[in-house]
Amino acid sequence: MSRTTASIRHTHRRISGRASRGFTLVELMVAITLGLFILIGLISLLVSNVVSRSELDKSSRQIESGRYAIQLLSEDLQNAGYVGASGSSTFAGVNPTACPAAIANLGYVPQTSPGTSTVPLPLYALTAVPTGCAGIINVQPNTAMLVVSRVNTNAVATTAKVSTETYLQVSSCATDTMPFAIGAGTATFPLTQKNCTTPEFLHKVVQHIYFVATCDVCSGAGTDTTPTLKMAEYVNGAMTITPLVEGIENLQFDYGVDMDGDGAPDCYISNPNAPSTTETAACPAATPAYDWTTSAANATTNWSNVMAVRVHVLARNTEASAGWVDAKKYDMGLAIGQVGPFSDTVKRHVYSAVVRLYNGSGQRE
Q1: Helix (H, G, I), strand (E, B), or coil: what is residue 23?
Q2: How far apart are CA 156 and CA 168, in angstroms?
Q3: Phi/psi at 233 (nearest 5 deg)?
Q4: DSSP class of residue 139?
Q5: What is the reported pTM?
Q6: Do 342 and 249 meet the contact criterion of CB atoms below 8 Å apart?
Q7: Which of 225, 245, 265 is the last residue of a domain?
Q8: How do residues 259-305 score in pLDDT, each as one tens digit?
Q9: Which UniProt keywords apply (predicted)?
Q10: b/e string for 142-171 if b means 16 or more Cβ within 10 A?
Q11: CA 350, 352, 355 angle in degrees (round to 5)?
């Protein structure tokens, strides 16, 4: 065997022996350390993604809640004052009883010609929880409560009425002795259509009271602390409370008053019952001059002249956000101005909209 061959075999044995010994302790520790760094980076990235996704979900739910609350309120306000037929401006507006115990308290009082019939004001604000509204509890302090009166936009044949509901029937016949009739589904509705023969359709009477409660479930073992927009609705002769949107912390309204009778709001005020002199001083002059003096009659006139409403909704996340401090202020309109900072760990946002009351403004135009 040549020396060259022997040298090659010796070198091969040295390489094979070194390979069989594996990694040294130092090499192994370096590899583990590098692996830990990579693992920590991956875990940090995963945690960051989870936190970001959680915050995105919270914000998405808050945006959906705020916009949905504005949509619900806008749709109802647009139909405020609807009585099932045109010409309701010939009726006088009166303050209905919130949470009425009887049909007569709703404000619909028909008179035989030539008497003046009354219908409830399309909307008016409450300053306190009305009596007889047992379900309106845990009302959020310094938030608005609004009563909306109208009838359902879906017509019902006299043969399809429900005995427990309350209906309004408006005459289209020139020879009918009353302009409208109101009663429970068990009552007889005698009014007719324009041909003075066919029975006129009925419309279910609607009264809604909007308010913000400090809780979604406000009694029993399920009581929580989630502020919620709720609605008290006149159903089957009594008020039923329905939670509408969770996470609504504040609700305020500005009312656009038509001062010259053209159907357009000329001035926004926070309280038609007792207008602020600061607000009315900023209103344009009207001819003839508009009477803002505080009285029951003027309050009714002011509410009758409301042609638009600015709605302000403060929506909040239903869960806290770690590391967040709410140092913002939120503009809630004329009644209370800005609210905040809350200095907590909950994110908020104000949603606003201007809603026109078509049934009043349309007839004036």
Answers
A1: coil
A2: 10
A3: -125, 135
A4: B
A5: 0.85
A6: no
A7: 245
A8: 999 999 999 999 999 999 999 999 999 888 999 988 888 999 999 99
A9: Membrane, Transmembrane, Transmembrane helix
A10: ebbbbbbbbbbeeebebeebeeebbbbbbb
A11: 160
